[in-house]
Amino acid sequence: MISLVRYLAADVLRGQRFLAPMLVFLGVMGMLFAYDPGPQLSAYSGSAALIYPICAWLAVVVATSEDVVRREITVVSAGGWARVLTAVAATTVLFGLVVAVVATVWAVVASPRPYTFGEFLAGLGAHGVCALLGVGVGLLFARPVFDAIGRTVLAVFAVVVFTYPLGRWTPLGWVLDALGHNQITPSILWAGVIGGALVAAAVVAGVRRA
Fold first, then answer.
1. Cis amide prior to 144 (ω within 30 degrees)
2. Which residues contact 169 (CB under 8 A, 6 or more apart)?
3. Cα gap 25→49, rounded to integer Å
4. At what angle do helices 186-209 and 171-180 cross, to 10 degrees?
5. What local confidence, expressed as pLDDT, does residue 54 receive?
6. How large is the average pLDDT for residues 135-141?
7. Are residues 174 and 108 in contact, defined by beta-carbon separation less than 8 angstroms?
8. Are 125 and 188 in contact (CB under 8 A)?
9. Long-range contacts for 116-120 (Cβ within 8 Å, ≥24 apart)?
10. CA torsion sign, 28 to 25 to 15 to 206?
């Protein structure tokens, strides 16, 4: 499994399609923290909200990095769709965690307000939860659930766009609400559980659809 994850990660990096979401992420982060973003935890709310669509985008990139023929070869070589989709999920989560770490450290470096280690860990956890939610959404509609990239993009875009207006009715809203009030609540943990469940459900749905 580790070698399969390494292969998928190397393939994504070689294809360079990850550059588009990463450049958007870095550009928006630069704007968010160009000035004093406010109290420590509430400053994380903007970057946490950003990580959600970025990780959904990255999930689609990882899931579709290989063309149909190469993916079939990978499936045969790896021993089935279950192993491949599990590796795709693991690879995407790893990319998401990297984005979460960058966002958390960025605030500490760019903000004029000092961060305690506890606030840093809280921010890292919140960013990680939002990354999981994004990965889950992206993989739920990626190949092999949807074979056409156009349908995948439209479905992921629609879910991401409609998540924000629903506010506290969504796990993402729980995280952003807690950060916006400069506090950490158990709802963030529950959002993380739901994010993990989404990723697992995406793997199961993909295996059944394949």
1. yes
2. none
3. 11
4. 150
5. 95
6. 93
7. no
8. yes
9. 116/40, 119/40, 119/41
10. negative
- Find all residues with CB under 8 Å of 32, minimum gap 6, and list them: 46, 47, 50
Exposure on the CB side of residue 183, measured as CA atoms within 13 A: 7
Which pTM does this prediction carry? 0.90
User: Token match 């199961």: residue?
Assistant: 204
Label each residue of 62-90 as H, E or C. HHCCCCHHHHHHHHHHHCCHHHHHHHHHH
162, 171 contact by CB (below 8 A) = no
Kindly report the number of other CB atoms within 10 A of residue 138's CB atom.
31
State both tokens at 109. Answer: 């470096």
CA distance 46 to 61: 23
Residue-wise pLDDT for 141-173, tens only, equals 988 888 888 888 888 889 888 888 887 888 998
Residue 29 token pair:
């982060």
- Host H or E run for residue 127: helix 117-140
Q: Is the pLDDT of residue 111 over 90?
A: no
Structure tokens at 163: 């998540």
